[in-house]
Amino acid sequence: MTKGHRRVLAGVVAVVAAGGLVAGVPTAASAAGVKSHIVFNNPLTPKGAKNIENRIQKLVQGARPGSRIRISVYRFSNAHGIADALIAADRRGVDVRIIADKGATRRHAPNYAPTGFERVRDAIGGDKVVTCPETRACIGEKLNHTKFLLFSNVRGTRNIVVQTSQNLNATGGTTTDWNDAVVLANATGTYNAYYRYFGDLWTRKPVPNYWRKRGGEVSSPEAVVQFFPKARRTADPIAKTLRQVKCLYTNNGKARKSHVRITTGNFNNKRAEVLTALTGLARKGCTVEVMLTVDPADGSRTAVIPVLRDAGVKVYDFGEYTSPNPMHSKYILVSGKLGQKVGKWTWTGSANFTYGSLYQDDEAVLQLRKVGKLGPKKIHDTYRCNFVRARAQFLGRPVPRPNCK
Fold this sequence. Notes:
By secondary structure, the chain is of the alpha+beta class.
C-alpha cells in the first residue's frame, strides 16, 4: 500500500468514526476543480439524454460545506438525483435556496407523488425552497421561466453560473428534448449579476420594467446578460440585434453572406418584431434557419411557419406531439457581419420567442463571449455543431458525431 492510499484510507476511517456516511473514495477526477464548458444533452440515447442533469448533479455533490447554491427554475418534477444531492448538500452545511414557478407543486393532482421540488422543500424547509405567488411570476406577471443555478464554491472553484434551457423534469429536457447548458466557472461578474437577479426573484416583488431598471445588458468578460421582463410597448432587444445583421458583405475582397440559426421551443406571432426582423433578413439575402416546436392547437404558433417560409426562411418544425425529440433549446447563432464587425456570435438562455418571454415572464438571455479557452468563434461553432446534429435528426439523415467531424 502506497502512502497515498494510506492517506485516503485514513480519511475514510475518520469520516466513519465521526458518524458520516461514505458514498465512495474520492478520486483525483472527482476532487478536481470545475472548468467552464458547454453541455448538450443527446435525446437520441438514454445516457446522452441525461448529460445536463448529470452535470448539474455532480456540481451539487461537489459544493463545499459553508458554500451557497442558488437555483431558479420553471419546473422541477422528477430529476430525483438532483433532489437527493440538494438534500445531502443541505445536511453537510451548504446554504441551499431554490425558487420556482408556482407550477412546480402538484399536491392537488390525482395519484399524487411528490415532485423533486416538493421533496427538497419538505426535507430542508419551506423557508429555503419557495415558489412565486400563485397569480403571477416572481417579478413579472405570468411565469418564472428561468433555468439557472449558482454555486459559490464547488471543489475549490468559485462563482459558477449554470445557464440552461432545460427544466428539471423529463418533459422539456432531461430525457426527451434537445437542450443546451453553459457552465461558467470563476465568472465573478456574471455570477454577481445573476446573484442580484436571484435576490430580486426571491423578494417576489413585481417590477414590470425590470429590464430597463436593473436587467438590461450587464457586461462581464465571459458574457453579456439581460434579465426580463421588459415594459410593454418598448423595443424588442432581440429584434434590435437581428436588425443589425448585414446579409451581403465583402471580407478580404470576397463576397460573403451572413447566416442566422435559431432554436426555440416556442415562437408565436405576438413576437412581431422578431418575426419581421427574420423575414427581412431572409429577403435581403441572409441564410436563415429556424428550428422550433409547434403546438398545432395554438394558432399564434402555427401562424409563424408560413410567414417565415414565404420569406425564404428554412423552418424545421419538430412538432409538440409528433416528434419524439422536440426542440427545447433557445439559442441564436449569427455568423457573418453584425453592425460593423465580421465574426461569430452566440446567445442562449431560458427565453422563447413569445410575447410572454419578453413582457411578462422572468427570463434570462446570455450572450457568450468566453467559455474557458473558447472565444466567440469556437463557442459559435460548438453550438452550430449541435444545430447540425438536431437538423440531421429532423431530416431523417445520419446524425454527425458530437464534434461534427
